[in-house]
Amino acid sequence: MREEIVTMLLQGIGETLYMSVFATLFGYVIGLPWGVALCITGKNGIKRNSGIYFVLDVIANIMRSIPFLILMIMVIPLTIAIVGQSYGSTATIVPLVISAAPMIARMVESSLVEVDAGEIEAVQSMGAGTGWIILHVLLGEGRVSLIAGATISFATILGYSAMAGTLGGGGLGDIAIRYGYHRYDTQIMIITVVLLVVLVQIFQGLGTWVGKKSDKR
Amino acid sequence: MAIVEVKNLSKTFDAAGGTTTALNHINLSIEEGDVFGIIGMSGAGKSTLVRCLNLLEVPTEGQVIVEGKDLTALTNKELREERGRIAMIFQSFNLLQQKNVISNVCVPMMIQGKKKSEAKKRAKELLELVCLQDKARSYPSQLSGGQCQRVAIARALASDPKILLCDEATSALDPQTTNQILDLLKEINQKLKITIIIITHQMSVVQKICNRVAIIDHGEIAEMGEVEEIFTHPKSQAGRVLVIDGTQEVGTSDRQKAVELLKEKKRIRIVFSKNSSYEPVIANMVLAVGKPVNILKADTQDVGGVARGQMILGLPDDADAQEKMIAYLKDHNLAVEEVQA
Predict the structure, then answer these.
(1) Nearest by CB: B92 against A118, A132, A144
(2) Is A217–B97 a contact, with Cβ atoms under 8 angstroms apart?
(3) Which contiguous run of DSSP H or E holds residue B33?
(4) Contact A122 B94 (CB under 8 A)
(5) Do A126 and B99 touch (CB under 8 A)?
């Protein structure tokens, strides 16, 4: 294989990881508190509040029902305002975060509502406040499920980042479209797909391993 | 002054198709140093009642006064502080599964903002008290039920409480482990002067460690008093069911059916209390009267060489023999009462 293609693929991997890692990170900055809020204001939550829950719930549903490619186009003005341009890896992070945050919020919510209500009741009986319960019981006891959720989120975001390639987002998806589709270079398309599969495998394996390691049940 | 006073407490839940009343105008007074039992069948409202005592359930009406403070009138912050003085243990232990034993015991102290080193030191002492010092680094999933409950007890004691609430704390344990846990609770009551309130559906638990008991039925107190008194002469319907059905699960009992099939019409219940003498009294009675009796149910245990507990006898149909037998038993300081077939 020609050296420049190898360089291009390596750069593609780098960009894909760059987008996925930062999008996941910022996605959690928004999605984690959002998920916690959904959990505690929900039906069996410790700060039940159907009004707040309704608003957070509806926003999550609306944002999650917009197809990613359309969302990418919709938020172009915002992307330009934040990053200064609408194409390239850094610019792609913006729609990725917007799309990932509500999904992450749902992941977090479903992990946290699984935490044993008895454990929460026990620390409440000791006088724990809401902050303590969130930090030590919800996040602490739900951590195995949270890690599993983070792994799924990361793999999904990685897939979205490849999709973003079709709109000039960079990364492996970009290469697959430009070489594989527009130039009919099946070989390169297959290589990028294989690389994406390997990346997802590695991170899924890593996530599962960390989750298992931290589980004391 | 009573350490816990419950005044006119009611709790209703909104459910689909109307409200259900879980507790209906409950009045209770528990003295310092008591081991107070609250017994009732499932659905009687006892778990709701104990949760009202630390306001995990907020009463719909009435007051809960603990050490002179009306909990229902406290702010959130004051209530959280007060909860440090009212510890609680649970049927399912409710330990934090992802934390090891010593960290679990440290939890109440971390909530109270104690220094980590101090908390660890105190936690070690408490683990020694419950004989689990060698399990400090284990995780709850590696322990047996009895060990988990011991950790939960150590954790409950970590905030130096004055009151310990036990919500069906032995219901998930086998009889032997139950006895060990009850012994430990008794020790805590006597040595540390902690008032204990025990929720249970088992009369045997109440008999073993409580000095006073309230029987709760359909959200109301059916009767309340000294354990000895209520065990000997249960007055309420719920009390009679709990006491006479005793150790078996209430409701569906094959044994009850078997009793009904027996032919004796006259049945008496005798109670062995602390005044009972040490002799094979039933056998001697049969020898003295010269007629046999049928033992329909016997539930006695040896406490310090004296039989304690109860028996239900089916007497012979001969009225003269019946009279003689009852007189004989009464002569021997046994409480005797007729029971309905």
Answers:
(1) A118
(2) yes
(3) none
(4) yes
(5) no
SS3 (DSSP) at A42: coil
Give the separation between CA B141 and CA B5, rounded to whole angstroms.
Answer: 38
Condensed to tens digits (0 to 9), the pLDDT of residues A25-46 reads: 999 999 999 999 999 999 999 9
Q: Least CB-CB distance to B84: which of A127, A132, A137? A: A127
pLDDT tens-place string over residues A175-189: 988 888 888 888 998
Query: For residue B2, what are the contacts with CB-CB under 8 A and spacing of at least 6?
Result: B29, B30, B31, B32, B65
Contacts of B81 in chain A (CB under 8 A): 127
Structure tokens at A178: 């430009």
Taking the C-alpha atoms of residue B102 and residue B117, their distance in angstroms, rounded to an integer, is 12
Nearest alpha carbon to residue B50 among B86, B81, B82, B15: B86
Please give the pLDDT value at position B247: 44
Picking from B135, B165, B173, B167, the residue whose alpha carbon sits closest to that of residue B66 is: B165
List the single best residue of A125, A138, A145, A146 to mutate versus B (max B Cβ within 10 A). A125
Closest by CA to B50, choosing from B87, B14, B25, is: B87
Report the complex ipTM. Answer: 0.87
Pick the CATH number of A3-212 from 3.40.190.10, 3.90.1150.10, 1.10.3720.10, 3.40.50.10420: 1.10.3720.10
What are the structural domains, with CATH classification, of chain B? 2-234 (3.40.50.300), 254-338 (3.30.70.260)
pTM confidence score: 0.85
Report which residue type is found at B249.
E
